[in-house]
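Researcher: Re-running this chain for the archive, since the previous output was lost when a drive failed. Same request as before.
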Amino acid sequence: MAEDRVTATPAALELLAEIVAEHGPVLFHQSGGCCDGSSPMCYAQGDFRVGERDVKLGEIGGMPFYISASQYEAWKHTRLIIDMVPGRGGMFSLDNGRERRFLTRSEICEI
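Model: Regenerated structure tokens:
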């Protein structure tokens, strides 16, 4: 089962609360791009269409977190930990332009 495979650090939850206060409810989708593979993308709910094959890993700060089915297959033995680091977010992600961005870390949770 994929649910509860994602957590967030206090710093990430603080950034998320700031974004939700400004934009309303959001959702996350783990980027699968070659350059942003560790960047979870944050979108206003309704601005990103979740695919029927996307897998919901759980929620952080009450907001849903998804990953593509193919990426889930590669990462299904890991727990994702969403953190906040200095820098710019992905071009279309709501953390962009804040000089802080979300970053995905991982740990093996089963073999």
